[in-house]
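[job 4417] fold queue: 2 targets
>>> target A
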Amino acid sequence: MSVAKRLVKQKKRRRFRVRNRVRRDAHGRMRLSVFRSNRHMYAQVIDDSTGTTVVAASTVEKGLGGAGSIASTKEAAAKVGSEIAKRAVEKGVTDVIFDRGVCSYHGRVAALADAAREAGLNF
């Protein structure tokens, strides 16, 4: 098996392991899912009981960074975190469970989570 295939397989296993742990411990709460690419940060609050996205925010949006710019900084991630929390609170969602996906809880992911907590989300 090539190195690239092994890394892809490990990434899929890690995502599956984290996602199952999050769903097991959710107890009816909605899930704050975070995706980090090399250029942008994406966050969405998902209701797993219906399979729908309640609110979403990303650095691709014009007010949070714009599509043409590279927004791969902790400051941009913090903007996304505070915006997702503000939108979720407006929809009546305050308690969520954090789903970091395959990313470690460090750097931009941690900055997004801290900003979301400061803006009113509980997890």
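>>> target B
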Amino acid sequence: MHLKHSPDAPTAEEIAFDEFLKVDIRIGTIVAAEEFPEARNPAYKLRIDFGQAIGEKKSCAQIVTNYPIDELPGRQVAAVVNFPPRQIGPAISEVLTLGFADGEGEVVMFAPDVKVPNGSRLF
């Protein structure tokens, strides 16, 4: 397990509240998931619907250990929607899907426990 993902990792550098507000975290619903065999680490390519204002965005997510691909469509997830797109191998990731490390260091996606409208912003 990487120390940065460990529950024992030290807290990050202190930031001002205004800096936090610059990070736009929204809820979206996964509409499609596909295998991503070209990825260096096992991953899926996701298409996530963030509602009318943002639309559908692509994300590459290393979530294969905890999520069978056929169970992903329809699941709501949180993602940062205002980072610049990143090239991940041959794919473009337009949003950063958020998660936490489980006891084995594998990703567990961050999502609301009650369905909320796509595009809802974290506050």
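[job 4417] complete. Note on B: The longest strand covers residues 25-35.
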